[in-house]
Specification:
Structural class: mainly alpha
Number of domains: 1
Radius of gyration: 25 Å
Number of strands: 0
Strand content: under 5%
Shape: rod-shaped
Order of helices and strands: HHH
Helix content: 55-70%
Largest sheet: none
């Protein structure tokens, strides 16, 4: 769709600016690839973090404590 228009615009640029455009394109690809990767993965590194509190509090009380600790 936009490929031809982009190519025409890039051809009009001097060589040093073409390199800048290429750098920017690479930056955008990395930026959005990282966002997609992070949004797809849900981490469970917190799991079991309050296990030692299990005997002292109910799950609801632990939720309230967690909110306080944040």
């Amino acid at each position: 769709m936009y490929e031809e228009e982009i190519e025409l615009k890039i051809r009009e640029l001097p060589e040093n600016l073409r390199r800048e455009v290429l750098d920017y394109i690479e930056f955008l690809i990395k930026k959005y690839r990282i966002r997609e990767d992070k949004s797809k993965k849900f981490r469970f590194d917190w799991e079991g973090g309050l296990a030692e509190m299990r005997d002292k509090f109910t799950s609801v009380e632990l939720q309230h404590k967690a909110l306080e600790w944040r």
